[in-house]
């Protein structure tokens, strides 16, 4: 699973506003007409932190309405300059809105709004096949060994059920077979419903022509718990240097491969701090997963060094689906 969100999600906005590779990002926020100068002027020469302040507890923005989700402000607040962290919430809010308005073009915001309306329409009309999927039930979703390791919450407990084929890549059993079966059936039911309703389904990314975003048909709340309670404890231990301890959003989707589906996915760089891939295959052959190392922002599109290419485990059978977090 590669839980982030559509291409227009918060991650990209915050990264654009924060990243220039030197630990800070220059800011020159524009003051919209009519906005009090006092709310922003004292901070015009400040710089955002590239790495979030993990010790800072963001203020509550759940009552804030508008085109940005409250989680956007909570995430961005951890990157504010030290001089601004103790300012009034309204001052921080104005400052962050200026940043987002400057670095997130109107066209991109329009896309997000259209996707929001699309999702709301689905949630209003779609009837789930498996209601039990939509609320977190750890004992029926996860294997006992996985649950026990998460409860212990230590590197030793996590490594007790993992293998590490190459440094930084971990393989482990996590989900109950019944959960995987229900999830596949729910996705198939959703796709049949979309076809019957003559909706145009929004695919997970621009590379796959088949598959679905799980949040689009109501699984967002459950997957938030999945991330916060079961993915974050592991990523906090193994990926602290890339933000594994501050996960705050996800993009969970299923992609489908087969003779009448996508046949491959080329090499690419995930736009996420942590990626969790889950094989939901029934019967298929092939399905190799390759890793080519971690790229810094200056070499995202550079040529791959052959020695960095590592092949994941191969499953043998006949067509499969793939869940990415």
UniProtKB/TrEMBL annotation:
Co-factor requirement: L-ascorbate
Q: Which domain of life is it from?
A: Eukaryota
Q: Where is the Prolyl 4-hydroxylase alpha subunit domain?
A: 167-322
Which spans are transmembrane here? none
Q: Name one GO molecular function term.
A: iron ion binding
Q: Which UniProt keywords apply?
A: Dioxygenase, Oxidoreductase, Vitamin C
Q: Which SMART domains match?
A: P4Hc
Q: What is this protein called?
A: Prolyl 4-hydroxylase alpha subunit domain-containing protein
């Amino acid at each position: 699973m590669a839980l982030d969100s559509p291409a227009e999600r918060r991650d990209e906005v915050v990264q654009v506003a924060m990243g220039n590779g030197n630990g800070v990002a220059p800011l020159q926020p524009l003051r919209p007409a009519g906005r009090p100068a006092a709310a922003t002027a004292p901070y015009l020469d400040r710089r955002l932190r590239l790495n979030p302040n993990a010790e800072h507890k963001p203020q509550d923005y759940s009552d804030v309405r508008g085109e940005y989700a409250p989680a956007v402000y909570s995430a961005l607040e951890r990157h504010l300059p030290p001089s601004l962290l103790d300012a009034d919430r309204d001052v921080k809010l104005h400052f962050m809105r200026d940043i987002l308005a400057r670095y997130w073009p109107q066209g991109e915001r329009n896309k997000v709004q259209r996707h929001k309306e699309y999702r709301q329409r689905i949630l209003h009309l779609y009837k789930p096949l498996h209601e039990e999927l939509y609320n977190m039930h750890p004992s029926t979703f996860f294997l006992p060994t996985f649950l026990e390791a998460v409860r212990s919450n230590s590197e030793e407990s996590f490594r007790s059920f993992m293998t590490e084929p190459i440094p930084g890549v971990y393989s482990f059993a996590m989900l109950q077979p019944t959960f995987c079966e229900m999830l596949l059936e729910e996705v198939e039911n959703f796709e049949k419903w979309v076809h019957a309703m003559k909706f145009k389904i929004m695919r997970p990314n621009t590379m796959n022509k088949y598959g679905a975003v799980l949040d689009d048909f109501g699984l967002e709340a459950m997957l938030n718990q999945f991330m916060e309670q079961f993915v974050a404890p592991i990523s906090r231990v193994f990926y602290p240097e890339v933000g594994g301890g501050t996960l705050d959003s996800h993009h969970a989707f299923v992609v489908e491969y087969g003779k009448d589906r996508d046949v491959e996915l080329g090499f690419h760089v995930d736009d996420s701090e942590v990626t969790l891939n889950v094989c939901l295959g029934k019967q298929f052959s092939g399905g190799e997963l390759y890793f080519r190392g971690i790229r810094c922002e200056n070499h995202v599109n550079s040529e791959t060094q052959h020695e960095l290419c590592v092949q994941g485990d191969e499953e043998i059978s006949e067509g499969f689906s793939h869940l990415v977090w």
